[in-house]
Amino acid sequence: MSTDDTGHQAVIDAAIGRLKGEPGPLLLVLHAVQDTLGYIPPAAVPQIAAGLNLSRAEVHGVVTFYHYFKSHPPGRTTLEICRAEACQAVGADALVAHAKKSLGIDFHEVTANGGISLDAVYCLGNCACGPSIRLGGKLHGRVTPERLDALTAPALRSK
Q: Which of 14, 20, 76, 113 lies in the 20 to 30 Å Cα band around 34?
């Protein structure tokens, strides 16, 4: 077992211990683990299942059903592109196609340098200024392919 695994186990045990008495604790535990580690390590599934007296299938099913939960470490910066109808009406589909091509990844993947994770979201609450993205937690509206390239360039250069 690596040092990372031991650290992960401690985070998971702490979340289970703190939340298992709450109603419907699985989602709470998963959120707590991802908030701390940035993702749900696959090795966490049996640990969470045992701690909450659930089957591994139940835990795995929830992790894989919700796109929010990641089962691999995210990039240093997360790029979220709005896929809601208002943004689609003003060019989000073309922006998505450009992002996938320029970054060389699909949704739920990470660039080769680990700089950017690409995720779809279904409303950023910026409908009047679409297409909208959130990059590293910062909201941007009226994003063109050229502006997307300029915004993502620093994360693609960093290692």
A: 113
Tell me 50's DSSP state.
H
Residue with tokens 């008495």: 21
Q: What are phi and psi of 21, to 5 degrees?
A: -85, -10
Q: What one-character DSSP code corresponds to residue 116?
A: E
Tens digit of each residue's pLDDT (9 = 90 or more) over 84-124? 999 999 999 999 999 999 999 999 999 999 999 999 999 99
* φ, ψ at 91 (rounded to 5°): 110, 10
pLDDT per residue as tens digits for the range 115-157 = 999 999 999 999 999 999 999 999 999 999 999 999 999 999 8
Please name the residue that has the structure tokens 């299942």.
49
The CATH number given to 77-157 is 3.40.30.10
Range list of H helices, 38-144: 44-52, 56-65, 85-88, 92-103
pTM of the model: 0.82
Do 63 and 40 form a contact (C-beta atoms < 8 A)? Answer: yes
SS3 at position 153:
helix
Q: Parse the chain into domains and list their residue ranges.
A: 3-65, 77-157
